[in-house]
C-alpha cells in the first residue's frame, strides 16, 4: 500500500515537473508581453501590471499583420498540397503492388533525414532558376518538399490498416481508384489527416531558415522572420515587450488548434500501433 502510494506520488510529481518545464516559457512570455518600461527587466512570476501597449505597437507598426497573413496563406497552402499528394501516394504505396515499393517508401522517408542547412544552397539555386525568389511560392515549394515525406509515411501506415474488403466492395460496384480514395478511404482517415495536416501546418508556420533565405521584403516575409527583425541594433535597444507580444500572437493559434484536435491527433499518431 505504501509502495503503491509512493509510486503514484512520484509519477504525479514527475508529470507536474514536465508540465511546468513545458508551460513556463510560454507563461513567462505572456507575463512579459503585458509589461512596459523598466518592469520588463524585473523578474516577476505573478502579474504586477497589465498593459496592451506592446500588442498595439506590434499590430500598428510595420507590416506584422501582412506577415501574419503571409504565414496563414503559406501554411494553409502547404497543408492542402501536401495532403492531396500524400493521400494519392499513400494509396499507391499501400494498395498497389509493384516492384520496389518498399525501397521507394524508404527513399521517401530518407529525404526527411537531411537537415535544412545541407540542402539550402541547392534549393536556393532551384528557387532562383524558376524565378520564385522573394515570392511566397518559394516558401510553399520548399515547405511542401520537407513535409511530404512525413505525411506520406503516416498516411501509408494508416491506409494499410484499413480493411481490404471495403476496397474490394467498391471495386465490385465499379468505383475508380480516385473514387475509392475520395469517397471510401478519406472519410475513414480523418484522424490521420488531421494529425499530419496539423503537424505540417505547425512546421510551415514556425519555419525560419528558408523564410529568411528565400524572401527579402516585408511584403513576402512570414512571422518568424518578422519577429527576428523586431530586434534593434544593440541589446539595449531590443524591444523585448514587442517581441514577447508578437510571440504570443503567433503561438496562441497553434495552441488552440492542438487543443481542439487533440483527440484526433492521438488517434492519428497511434494508428497502426495496435492490431486487433
Describe the structure.
The protein has 276 residues and is an all-alpha fold. It has two domains: 1-51, no CATH class; 63-269, MetI-like fold (Orthogonal Bundle), CATH 1.10.3720.10. It has helices at residues 2-33, 53-60, 64-95, 101-111, 116-129, 136-160, 164-172, 177-185, 190-206, 209-214, 223-228, 240-260, 262-269. It contains 13 helices and no strands.
Features:
disordered C terminus, MetI-like fold, 276 residues, mainly alpha
Concise structural overview:
It is built from 13 helices and no strands. It is an all-alpha fold and 276 residues long. The chain folds into 2 domains: 1-51, no CATH class; 63-269, MetI-like (MetI-like fold, Orthogonal Bundle).
How is the topology of this model organized?
Layout: H1 2-33, H2 53-60, H3 64-95, H4 101-111, H5 116-129, H6 136-160, H7 164-172, H8 177-185, H9 190-206, H10 209-214, H11 223-228, H12 240-260, H13 262-269
Helix pairs in contact: 1-12, 2-12, 3-6, 3-9, 4-6, 6-9, 7-8, 9-13
Amino acid at each position: 500500500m505504501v509502495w503503491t502510494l509512493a509510486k503514484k506520488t512520484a509519477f504525479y510529481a514527475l508529470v507536474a515537473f514536465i508540465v511546468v518545464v513545458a508551460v513556463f516559457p510560454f507563461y513567462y512570455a505572456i507575463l512579459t508581453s503585458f509589461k512596459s518600461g523598466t518592469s520588463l527587466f524585473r523578474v516577476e512570476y505573478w502579474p504586477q501590471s497589465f498593459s496592451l501597449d506592446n500588442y498595439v505597437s506590434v499590430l500598428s507598426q510595420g507590416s506584422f499583420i501582412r506577415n501574419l497573413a503571409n504565414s496563414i496563406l503559406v501554411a494553409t497552402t502547404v497543408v492542402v498540397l501536401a495532403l492531396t499528394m500524400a493521400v494519392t501516394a499513400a494509396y499507391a504505396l499501400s494498395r498497389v503492388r509493384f516492384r520496389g515499393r518498399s525501397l521507394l517508401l524508404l527513399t521517401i522517408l530518407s529525404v526527411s533525414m537531411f537537415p535544412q542547412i545541407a540542402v539550402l544552397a541547392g534549393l536556393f539555386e532551384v528557387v532562383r532558376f524558376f524565378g520564385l525568389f522573394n515570392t511566397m511560392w518559394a516558401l510553399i515549394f520548399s515547405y511542401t518538399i520537407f513535409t511530404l515525406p512525413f505525411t506520406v509515411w503516416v498516411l501509408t501506415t494508416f491506409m494499410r490498416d484499413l480493411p481490404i474488403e471495403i476496397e474490394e466492395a467498391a471495386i465490385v460496384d465499379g468505383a475508380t481508384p480516385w473514387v475509392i480514395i475520395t469517397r471510401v478511404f478519406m472519410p475513414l482517415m480523418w484522424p490521420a489527416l488531421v494529425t499530419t495536416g496539423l503537424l505540417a501546418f505547425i512546421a510551415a508556420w514556425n519555419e525560419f531558415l528558408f523564410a529568411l533565405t528565400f524572401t527579402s521584403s516585408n511584403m513576402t516575409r512570414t512571422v518568424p522572420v518578422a519577429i527576428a527583425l523586431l530586434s534593434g541594433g544593440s541589446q539595449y535597444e531590443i524591444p523585448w515587450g514587442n517581441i514577447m507580444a508578437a510571440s504570443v500572437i503567433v503561438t496562441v493559434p497553434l495552441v488552440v488548434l492542438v487543443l481542439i484536435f487533440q483527440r484526433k491527433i492521438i488517434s492519428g499518431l497511434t494508428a497502426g500501433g495496435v492490431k486487433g
